[in-house]
Design goal:
One of its GO terms (molecular function) is metal ion binding. The chain is of the alpha/beta class and 238 residues long. It has 5 helices and 15 strands. α4 runs parallel beside α5. It is globular and about 50 Å long. The structure holds flavin-adenine dinucleotide and FE2/S2 (inorganic) cluster (FES).
């Protein structure tokens, strides 16, 4: 979905998210947190890519051209691209692809080389392969759980293979938590820095409700919505 969001599009950083109100059912008062895949500051638009998983995203999918709502943002802290020296390996699972490809745009702008792994349950759920190539990825490797496209298996299979062929200074990843835990383990064992974009249920999206806690390795919790969603993998209690 492309949203016209004057004022917001130019100030969003890769890895931040927006909190979208979906009109249609007044009993649903919470917004839907969504990453963005890209922005067009000139046209003042934001591109989001989402999976329909429940009532809110189903209503979102019924919105059409000309429908209006409100969107809150920029939310959270995004990728720390200034800390990335490259070569970088970007690893996305499922709907983790939008923020990972937003990071790719940022690396492209900084002239930092990167490869991409895109994983999905099945070929029909893959998104972003063409976009990753058009953003200048050195290699784009696809994995599917059922083998309908690319390597059969999880993204970690591809990550291990690619680590054997190139030294990655940095790994950036977003996807299901078990996948990110596996990618983080491989990245840190290989001596790479590793940034992870965590997903949590969110209610407010701005640090007021304690819904979105992420357990920290050092003890205690941080708020995914304001301290994250991007964390250093070493910070997180996996
Ligand atoms: C920072 C952030 C960025 C996100 N970016 C994207 C994106 O780019 N594209 C995309 O498709 N989705 C993204 N999500 C997930 C998206 O927000 C949820 O899928 C959505 O809120 C579900 O709302 P719903 O009303 O349709 O489903 P619900 O009826 O609320 O839930 C349906 C199912 O999804 C699970 N679920 C709901 N919200 C979340 C969540 N936040 N994390 C994990 N599971 C959840 C529920 O447990 C339930 O099983 C993001 C979430 C966060 C926190
Ligand atoms: S969603 Fe309310 S504190 Fe994070």
């Amino acid at each position: 979905m492309v949203m016209h969001a004057p004022g917001l599009a130019p100030i969003l950083s890769p890895g931040q998210f927006v909190n979208v109100a979906v009109p249609g059912d007044p009993s649903h008062i919470t917004r839907i947190p969504l990453s963005f895949a890209g922005t067009d500051p000139k046209a003042q638009t934001i591109e989001i890519v989402y999976a329909v998983v429940g009532e809110g995203t189903a209503r979102l999918s019924r919105m059409g051209e000309g429908d209006a709502s409100t969107v809150l943002g920029p939310c959270g802290k995004g990728w720390r691209l200034d800390d990335v020296s490259g070569p970088a390996l970007l690893v996305a699972g499922g709907v983790g692809a939008p923020p990972v490809l937003a990071a790719a745009r940022g690396l492209l702008a900084r002239g930092i080389p990167f490869d991409v792994v895109l994983g999905a349950q099945t070929a029909g759920k893959l998104w972003g392969v063409g976009l990753a190539k058009s953003l200048g990825a050195g290699r784009v490797v696809v994995t599917t759980d059922d083998g309908t496209a690319g390597i059969k298996g999880f993204t970690t299979v591809a990550v291990e293979q690619m680590q054997g062929e190139r030294d990655y200074a940095d790994v950036l990843t977003c996807g299901p938590q078990p996948m990110m835990a596996g990618v983080a383990r491989l990245a840190l064992a290989d001596g790479s820095s590793c940034q992870v974009s965590m997903e949590r249920m969110m209610t407010c999206g701005f640090g007021a409700c304690n819904t979105c806690n992420v357990a920290m390795a050092a003890g205690g919790y941080k708020a995914c919505c304001t301290d994250g969603p991007v964390f250093d993998a070493r910070e997180v209690a996996w």
